[in-house]
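Hi Prof. W.,

I finally got the Palmitoyl-protein thioesterase 1 prediction working! I wasn't sure whether to trim anything, so I left the full sequence exactly as given:
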Amino acid sequence: MKKWLGIIFLIKYILANPTPIVLWHGMGDTCCVDFSLGSFKLFLEKEIPGVYVNSLRIGNSTIEDFENGYFMHPNKQVEYVCNLLAKDPELQDGFNAIGFSQGAQFLRGVVQRCGHKLPPIKNVISLGGQHQGVYGLPRCGALEHATCDYVRKLLNYAAYYSWVQHSLVQATYWHDPLDEKMYKKRSQFLADINNEREINETYIANLNRLENLVLVKFDSDSIVQPRETEWFGFYAPGQAEQLLPLEESNLYKKDRLGLRKMKESGKLVFLSTPGDHLHFPQEWFVEQILKPYLL
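And this is what came out:
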């Protein structure tokens, strides 16, 4: 009888004290206004009564948050968020995290670089994250104007110039399969968090502390090229046609991030949905993400 009472008490406690959730928006979006991630925050609060949701604002205003998605170096963004999360009293017992598009690889950067200094990060959900980078930028999401053309031109012709890496966020996860040597040498963010230059054991240990890393790929994604990067897949080196799944890459075979270990232990989860970039039915999210990983 005491055993069952204990189980009932535990269930009631969990339901009354849901695990907090941290959100990191993508390129061309902001943290909090109703037509962007603000509406998703309200959705989570409705589906999980009493949950605390921290939708990250990178900067001191919505305008700064929007601009920083293009012009604040990811290394600075990751450091900024590490400090925010460490100081948030609502997260001290641990939290789950959801990254949208580029926010997903930036969240992974947080896990790897400062996860050992933060409260327990339980599950990380990557929605359309570009974990092996991108090679192509067909659309800019919310920015359908001259800025798009400017960004495209810089990436196509000068992504690995030092000043471009310093000034344009998307350049730091530009991955040119035709010049892997240059990518590994000059990429100031992605090559580092993917352990391309040297093995950082802290990155591996922190990533493996997660309960689950859930990778969601959008099968009809028209923004991310190649869309397989959302599952850590990418072009085979030296060309831009043949695609290799994660399991056939050196990243996996040499286990440079511990992803093979995570997969073998059931911590690396691959999900897909038929929609375009970040387009998914609420019912799908509830059944595939919310119930298994956020409750």
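Residues 5-13 have pLDDT under 50 and may be disordered. Does that look reasonable to you?

Thanks,
D.
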